[in-house]
Amino acid sequence: MAASVNVTLTVDNFYYDSSTNRTKARLDSRFQWSGVPSFKMTDILAISWNNYMQTGKVGGVTYRHIYGTQSDYFKSATYLPPEGGMESYGGGYKWSVSEQDNYFYTYKGYAIFVIEKANYNHLEAYTAYGHQQGYAKLSFSVRSGVDVQFNLQRKNIGDDYFSARYP
């Protein structure tokens, strides 16, 4: 059976701060492979949202040995802004899926964004995992909505969605 990836999006600390008149949220996108991916190039985990300002971000991945004979290890992922600089609508992280002559592969990882906006109480967010399956541009795009688009050689193989309104 081919390996698959599970992608989840959790939104926590979604609240209105009356002292600043700003709505704030923390978006936590995570992925985990069920086995060794067949294509081991460069992948992207991206999140889009409905026009909030980024105030914090972090991303990282855990590598696992293909035979399980060596310990897992962690590496920070590289921040990747959406094409066109639309960072008020999203952001992402990229990383190499394999390391050390393909003996280690990306087992799991995350992208976390802290966002905020004044005078607004509605949040929509969407996350997508872009898996490279051939020569592909290292980019993704978001539109003024909740959407992530990858180019033709990068396939969306997992995603999740969140919507809420602060009372």
Description:
With about 170 residues, the protein is mainly β. The protein has one domain: Immunoglobulin-like (Sandwich). About 0% of the residues lie in helices and about 60% in strands. It has no helices and eleven strands. Strands 1, 2, 4, 5, 8 and 9 form a six-stranded antiparallel beta sheet that branches. The radius of gyration is 16 Å and the shape is elongated. The N and C termini lie far apart (about 45 Å). About 30% of the residues are buried. The mean pLDDT is about 85.
Set out the fold topology.
Elements: E1 5-17, E2 22-33, E3 42-49, E4 53-65, E5 73-76, E6 78-80, E7 90-96, E8 98-99, E9 104-118, E10 122-132, E11 154-165
Antiparallel strand pairs: 1-2, 2-9, 3-7, 3-10, 4-5, 4-9, 6-7, 8-9, 10-11
Helix content: under 10%
CATH architecture: Sandwich
- Annotation field: number of helices: 0
Relative strand content: over 45%
Q: Judging from the principal axes of the Cα atoms, what is the shape? A: elongated
CATH topology: Immunoglobulin-like
Low-pLDDT stretches are none
Kindly report the average pLDDT value. 87
Q: What gap, in angstroms, lies between the N and C termini? A: 45 Å
What is the count of structural domains? Answer: 1
Helical/strand content category: mainly beta
Please write the CATH class name: Mainly Beta
Main β-sheet: number of strands, strand sense, barrel status?
6 strands, antiparallel
The SSE string, one letter per element, is: EEEEEEEEEEE
Rg, alpha carbons = 16 Å
DSSP, total strands: 11
